[in-house]
Amino acid sequence: METPEKRIERIEIRLAIEDLNRNFCHYLDYDMVDELADLFTEDCSYSHGSRMSEGRGEIHALFSDRIAAGIRTSRHLQTGLKIIVHDSKRATGKSVCLTFACDQSPPISPATPFLVADFIDEYLCSSDGRWRIHRRHIERIFTAAENRGPVKITGK
Q1: CATH code of 26's domain
Q2: Domain of residue 81, residue span
Q3: What is the per-residue pLDDT for 152?
Q4: What is d(CA 51, CA 60) in angstroms, rounded to the nearest whole number?
Q5: Is residue 97 part of a domain?
Q6: Residues of the chain where predicted confidence (pLDDT) is lower than 70
Q7: Among positive and negative, which fits the CA dihedral 55, 60, 61, 63?
Q8: What is the rounded CA–CA span in Å between residue 75 and residue 77?
Q9: Is residue 87 part of a domain?
Q10: Fewer C-beta neighbours within 10 Å, C or N terminus of the chain?
Q11: Model pLDDT, residue 150
Q12: Residue 60 is assigned to a structural domain of this protein
């Protein structure tokens, strides 16, 4: 039987991971690249289709390039987060992300989904006590006709 202390720890971990995922969508949608990159471990991996980013620096470069490419409005709506807490330092999760995106400023019409994808994650609790994404794989489920695939890192 789970002790009250263990139950509280498990709930705290789940809440921290839920916040982590909310922050990912918020920082991504509002071009907060430094904050976004800090959500990942130093030795993370982030894959979407054939694109693979290794380490926090590559993730920072990826999303900096995305901003430098020009006007991009997006909103990411994440739902269905299923978290499995393995221990006090490691958890895994899976969720669905619905993305609206367009290369123009708002308001944008019509509002049609750009991508529906599964996020398959591994989370680690860092030495500073913060939960971070260690691995994130984005599996494309539904794509809009104009969706040309994931953004590429310059020079990769």
Answers
A1: 3.10.450.50
A2: 4-143
A3: 67
A4: 14
A5: yes
A6: 151-156
A7: positive
A8: 7
A9: yes
A10: N
A11: 83
A12: yes
Q: In total, how many domains does the chain have?
A: 1
One-letter identity of residue 60: H
- Residue 149: the pLDDT is 84
> Which burial class, exposed, middle or buried, applies to 67 when counting CB atoms under 10 A from its CB (0-12, 13-18, 19+)?
exposed
Each residue of 68-102: pLDDT tens digit? 999 999 999 999 999 999 999 999 999 999 999 99
**What whole-number distance in Å separates Cα of residue 140 and Cα of residue 142?**
6
pTM for this one? 0.94
2 backbone dihedrals φ, ψ, rounded to 5°:
-75, 130
The DSSP code sequence of the chain is ---HHHHHHHHHHHHHHHHHHHHHHHHHHTT-HHHHHTTEEEEEEEEETTEEEEHHHHHHHHHHHHHHT---EEEEEEEEEEEEEEETTEEEEEEEEEEEEESSPSS-SS----EEEEEEEEEEE-TTS-EEEEEEEEEEEEE-TT---SPPPTT-
